[in-house]
Design goal:
- There is one protein chain.
- This protein has 271 residues and is α/β, with parallel strands linked by helices.
- It has two domains: 238 residues, Phosphoenolpyruvate-binding domains (TIM Barrel), CATH 3.20.20.60; 29 residues, no CATH class.
- The chain has an eight-stranded parallel beta barrel with strand order 1-2-3-4-5-6-7-8, surrounded by seven helices.
- Helix 2 crosses helix 4.
- Helix 9 links the parallel strand 6 and strand 7.
- Bound molecules: 3-methyl-2-oxobutanoic acid.
- The site of 3-methyl-2-oxobutanoic acid has 11 residues, from strand 6.
Length: 271
Amino acid sequence: MSVHSEIKKITTETLRKMKFDKEKITMLTAYDFTTAKMVDAGGVDAILVGDSASNVMAGYETTLPITLDQMIYHAQCVVRGVDRALVVVDLPFGSYQSNPEKALESAVRIMKESEAHAIKLEGGSEVEESIQKIVNAGIPVMGHLGLTPQSIYQFGTYKVRAKENDEADKLISDAKLLEELGCFALVLEKIPAELAKKVSESISIPTIGIGAGADCDGQVLVYHDMVGMNKDFTPKFLRRYLDLYSEITGAVSQYVKDVKSADFPNQTESY
Ligand code: KIV
């Protein structure tokens, strides 16, 4: 008999069932072991090793510079910290757009080298063949439509997408295509709530929204934003649960004072 307590791991099938049962799905980003452990312990259903690591961890202005090797490194760190959540890893810009063979190779590298559970990529009909090839290889794929940050230079702005009929119609047909291709879920980023509702009701796979209203089947936020580590990023869709920027800078300045005044370390903190 096993002495290990059984942790019920979240799978792509669990997420599908949650949509069916109308139970909301929760997802947050993580890029390192310690954060992944806390986020998993907090009970999220899925952890996204997002290419937002390019902004949040590396300080780049966009998600474009991060490499496949760097994404694999972040994914390895996260996987080691997770017991329960489904770990999804972004295919970074340039690792899948050129051809389906390259897309499959990149997805296989992520799965093999990090032991994550699924990959995510941006786009609809433009990446149809790549999605098909990755799904055919048995790798779970999460789609991503709406404001897809890897296309920021084409969009020219981080404003809400698909407000016009043409773009909204394409988004709906892309969502249906991603479902047909076998994606297990779909991120909808920064689109009108009404459109996200329509998409969520017209496909059987779960939609996970960020800036896409309350009718998505789940929600995702960037961890560093929701704990208030990034004081300059204040989009309307963001709810901050902590003000860690102030907490941490306050703690650091107290430490500086304590060392300068020879208050730290005291006798009980010494050997
Ligand atoms: O990279 C990321 O963090 C994402 C989320 C914003 C969905 O793609």
